[in-house]
Specification:
414 residues; alpha/beta; Spore Coat Polysaccharide Biosynthesis Protein SpsA, Chain A; Rossmann fold; 7-stranded mixed sheet; 6-stranded parallel sheet; 21% strand; disordered C terminus
Length: 414
């Protein structure tokens, strides 16, 4: 029997940059930590794990993985598309490690290989350890994470619904029904030699590892991400980390304002804005970073506010995504290095254009779910200042430049 005090497993985390359900999903945050960061942390916390390797085709995912302690193996384009299997990524990593990758010497592959998926943000290291030991000791060839359920299930065949595992005449009580199990997608633990021989995660004697059902969330759609954040009571990204981007684009209503308007008897609208937001924009503008207010609103108050802040504005825009793409192209910017701040559903298309979709704290749930970063401040109440401060924190020498400029010229804040 193997010595269980010695790590016996290599964990491989496939993390593509592309995602159809949630843009740049693997960099989305839950409780202030990216999904790829959470996967790396949980894996490294399991005592049976010798090494964690992230397979990715995306530079920012690679940097995030390294920051949390993982080794990175570059994923070739031919196995990084939407139809590429996770197995292909694992086999590529094992081959690269065995042959020597990135200048590192060749190394022997541990007897157990684990596929861990970023889409499961709440992996318990103890569950992972237990599953690895069951394979390492020869109890099972494969162990997969599952969640127990006692619900009544139905299926539809040719338009006809029929019960599964029960009948309409006899519906036993929960305690009288045998449980069934749902794959959580969190981890798949396999004998390395068996996996490499068959190129599939399922072979031989397959066992299941039940995990807590209340934490068995798999993030495929924006609502899944929203639900995961609710579980940890973390709507906002509470980690005030610097944001390294080359341009900032914001919506107006609900971002620069609190999404309320005052209308007088003549129909003239007035909005409330934050002087702190104005200060943030003024300081950021002094660094030379392009700033754009992009709005569907036709009211001239949008242009007036932009003129006061001395930033570019496009308002009365029907197709914000198309306008944003054109603006980015005109400036020869990399969309992956542009931030867009929104608050409502008409921002979703524009958010999908950029690498840093950002939501204010009081944004719609759909917007928060699509956001890569959720601010801690609400629209009209410091959200713009917060995003400006984050960008300033990532720009070398910004503080000295701002101090010098502020000493020479009054700062526009109103």
């Amino acid at each position: 029997m193997p010595d269980q005090s010695t790590p016996s497993a290599i964990v491989i985390i496939p993390a593509r940059g592309g995602s159809q359900g949630v843009p740049l999903k693997n960099l989305a945050r839950v409780d202030g930590i990216t999904l790829v960061g959470r996967a790396v942390q949980a894996s490294l916390a399991a005592s049976s794990v010798a090494e964690v390797i992230v397979s990715t085709d995306h530079d920012e995912i690679a940097a995030e993985a390294r920051q949390h302690g993982a080794r990175v193996v570059a994923r070739p384009a031919e196995i990084a598309g939407g139809t590429a299997s996770s197995e292909s990524a694992l086999l590529h990593v094992l081959d690269r490690v065995e042959a020597g990758d990135g200048g590192l010497p060749p190394q022997e592959i541990p007897p157990v290989t684990v596929l861990v998926q970023c889409t499961s943000p709440f992996i318990d290291p103890e569950d992972l350890d237990t599953a690895i030991r069951r394979v390492a000791t020869g109890e099972k060839d494969v162990v997969v994470a599952v969640s127990e359920t006692h619900d009544f299930q139905w299926r539809i065949d040719d338009g006809v619904a029929s019960p599964v595992g029960h009948t309409t005449e006899y519906r036993p009580r929960r305690q009288e029904r045998a449980p069934h199990f749902r794959e959580t997608g969190a981890f798949y633990v396999m004998r390395t030699d068996g996996f490499r021989a068959g190129s599939t995660r399922f072979f031989g004697d397959v066992g299941i590892q039940p995990v807590a059902s209340e934490w068995a969330i798999e993030i495929d759609e924006p609502r899944d991400l929203w639900l995961a954040r609710q579980l940890v009571d973390q709507d906002a990204d509470a980690t005030p980390e610097p944001l390294d981007v080359d341009a900032l684009v914001t919506d107006f209503d609900g971002v620069h304002t609190d999404d309320h308007a005052f209308v007088d008897q003549d129909g003239t609208e007035q909005v409330r804005v934050s002087r702190g937001d104005g200060m943030g924009v003024s300081l950021l503008r002094r660094t030379g970073l392009p700033i754009l207010i992009l709005s569907t609103e036709t009211n001239k108050v949008v242009a007036s506010r932009a003129d006061k802040l001395k930033v570019q504005v496009m308002h009365g825009v029907e197709n914000k995504a198309a306008a944003l793409r054109a603006w980015i192209a005109e400036r020869d910017l990399d969309p992956a290095r542009v931030a867009y701040v929104g608050n409502d559903v008409n921002d979703l298309a524009a958010m999908a254009v950029v690498g840093w979709p950002v939501a204010v704290a009081d944004a719609r749930p759909e917007v928060k779910a699509q956001a890569r970063l959720v601010l801690s401040r609400e629209g009209g109440n410091g959200a713009v200042r917060e995003i400006c401060d984050r960008i300033l924190a990532a720009r070398p020498g910004a503080a000295a430049h701002i101090s010098s400029a502020a000493a020479q010229t009054p700062v526009v804040t109103g």
